[in-house]
Specification:
With 286 residues, the chain is an alpha/beta fold. 37% of the residues lie in helices and 13% in strands. It has an eight-stranded parallel beta sheet with strand order 7-6-5-4-3-2-1-8.
Length: 286
């Protein structure tokens, strides 16, 4: 019989999770991101990061800071698997000036990401008519780039799956944040054992990237907490079973939305592979 510390009921091994384990630098969003933060992430056994492009934390236009962080990633063997675009852009633009602003700023961030050999770009492009304007233009104007653009869900998943299918580009996909889906009653289906697996599996091959984290009491709207917290209610076994269902090949990346306790986040993310398999390492059917 396979040791529980080696393989989970959903088919994930400690080694497989560890090899794809990542964390967003959003954990340091209240600080100026530096080489020492990258070193701390690597010391915790995490080898992948998402760079949050937040000017007061990491300003990609600051050549000195960008050089410091990128060189430390190379030194530590940390791969930058994604960048998260600046959150303050008017993606739901109301006029031509706002549309041009989104395009101009997005192209600048995409250029930085492409030149840094980053494979994924995460933005709050949405899933509406404005998305059909912004995304195709960015795809056209970055023709020849290898980076993949993704839209992060800020609600129920079906409209986001639909917009990815409608735009129909192999350079456009979906980033699923597991704290954001909501049913019609306002509840997150990923905290319900009977719904979680089916909900995530509906993304199929449109799923390009993940933002993982814990959530607590939904009435308090508290999400983006460290994984496998003792009071957390995300159905992790079902979530990871769904990732197997859709043959997800991307990173298992954890994202903090508040930056309140980066040390705890780094520690608990680093411990996730062993803790997940310890919790779900049995022969029960999911």
């Amino acid at each position: 019989m396979t040791n529980n510390l080696e393989k989970s009921a959903s088919g994930w091994t400690v080694g497989e999770i560890h090899a794809r384990l990542g964390i967003s630098t959003a954990i340091y969003q209240r600080l100026r991101l530096s080489a020492q933060h990258i070193a701390k992430i690597r010391q915790a056994g995490i080898s992948r990061i998402e760079l949050l492009l937040k000017p007061d934390s990491f300003d990609y236009r600051n050549l000195f800071q960008a050089k410091e962080v990128l060189e430390e990633c190379q030194k530590q063997g940390v791969k930058i698997v994604s960048v998260h675009a600046f959150l303050g852009l008017p993606y739901r633009f109301k006029n031509e000036a706002e549309r041009k602003l989104v395009i101009t700023k997005s192209l600048s961030m995409l250029r930085f990401a492409e030149e840094s050999s980053v494979p994924n770009y995460v933005a709050h492009f949405g899933c509406g008519e404005h998305t059909k304007v912004i995304v195709p233009e960015l795809l056209n104007r970055t023709d020849g780039y290898s980076i993949k653009l993704t839209t992060e869900n800020m609600g129920a998943l079906p409209p986001y799956v639909a917009i990815v299918e409608e735009i129909g580009s192999d350079r456009f996909g979906l980033t699923v944040d597991i704290g954001h889906p909501k049913d019609k009653d306002g509840a997150n289906p990923l905290v319900m054992k009977e719904k979680a697996r089916q909900t995530l599996a509906q993304c199929g091959n449109r799923l390009s990237h993940l933002h993982l984290h814990e959530t607590f009491n939904l009435a308090q709207k508290r999400d983006h907490r460290p994984p496998l917290h003792k009071d957390g209610i995300i159905q992790w076994g079902e979530v990871f079973a769904a990732l197997k269902d859709v043959d997800y090949k991307g990173e298992l990346l954890f994202e903090d939305g508040r930056g309140e306790n980066p040390e705890e986040w780094v520690r608990m993310t680093g411990e996730f592979p062993q803790e997940f398999v310890r919790r779900y390492g049995n022969n029960e059917s999911l």
